[in-house]
Amino acid sequence: MTIIRPVVVALSAFLAAPAVVPASPARAVAPYVPCPAAKPPAPPPAAPSPPPVGSADRAVGGESLATPGLSIPAGAPMAPAVTATSWVVADLNSGMVLGGCGPHEHRTPASVQKMLLAAALMPHLDPTQVVEVTRADLQDLDPASSVMGLVPGGRYSIESLWLGLLLRSGNDAANVLARVGGGAAGRQGGVQAMNDEARRLGANQTHAATPSGLDGPGQYTSAYDLALIARAAYARADFRRYIATRVAEIPAEPGRPGFAITHDNTLLDHYPGTLGGKTGFTDLARQTYVGVAERDGRRLAVTLLGAETAPLGSLGEAAALLNWGFALSPDASVGRLVAPDEKKHDRPVAQVRAGQHGQATTGRSTPWAFILGPGAAGALAVLLLAAPWRRRAARAAAKP
What we know:
Blueprint: H1 4-16, H2 55-58, E1 70-71, E2 86-91, E3 96-101, H3 114-121, E4 130-132, H4 135-138, E5 155-157, H5 158-167, H6 171-181, H7 186-201, H8 223-234, H9 237-243, E6 247-250, E7 259-262, H10 267-270, E8 274-282, E9 286-295, E10 298-307, H11 313-327, E11 335-336, H12 349-362, H13 368-398
Helix pairs in contact: 1-13, 3-7, 3-8, 5-6, 6-7
């Protein structure tokens, strides 16, 4: 009786207490501050509205990044005015985001999407493998688009294709690499590998429809996602070597002369510490850019989307943003770059408790019914059974 009485008293108190309906967790949204904007000489052409960003995805990397506007550290000098509609400056060594404008907003990538192709397939393709180009690799390319100069029937090493992809933004090289890397699924398998890599990196706003970055249905990225992709790509020594190459010689073949390709990123020779970068342009995306520079042990990445050719162009705007980033204190930040495969949501407490309870009942601990005796165990059973009934009743009462 001395054991049963406290349990019964606890049961009575439990049933008499008002039920509490757990509130849905609310996500904070950073205050909106307009981004400093430079006005281009001519307005850009109209473009379809991008899809909205979910509140959970918008806050990846930190609540301060959950804004379509400006996010910079408190007390930092104002960021430069640029035409880019979104941008991010991040430290690739520490993973800290120094600042951004609409960091998670969906934007069209153009050829900076090729960096995702490299991040996805470079770890899996042998650079010495020689592959033959097919007519299907080239038949859907606009002759006016950027190509490295592949020809049907030509045989090229994977390394030559990577150089053509990153130095000349070769859409032809992108198609071949995606086909080879896609295995039995061909080019579409390579595109799927890109999307799988984006998910692994936590690049939730990124969806590839083409391996080259040429506009395709539902193809988007974000400035934050591009920083994640750049961090993964620049972690590889072979990628760093390719992206920093000024001139590459493509060997001759029987009946076909060799040729040279040069890097189209002029920051390599004009911005101190540049480790390389990738440009992009389509009528829909406008100018896009991803670049990395190193100074005093700090390795900063700048990603920008939706820039115009004037007054500075994407390269000039990238240099201005890098200057701003390098001028900040090394510990200044507004968020961070999430790690690959990092869990985006904590496990619900109820599930954790259920798992712990399961471990206890299957272990060697002494059964509660034996300790309490049959009377107290029965009262405890009523208590436990009453809990879900009370929660359901409370939720029903809370509905409008």
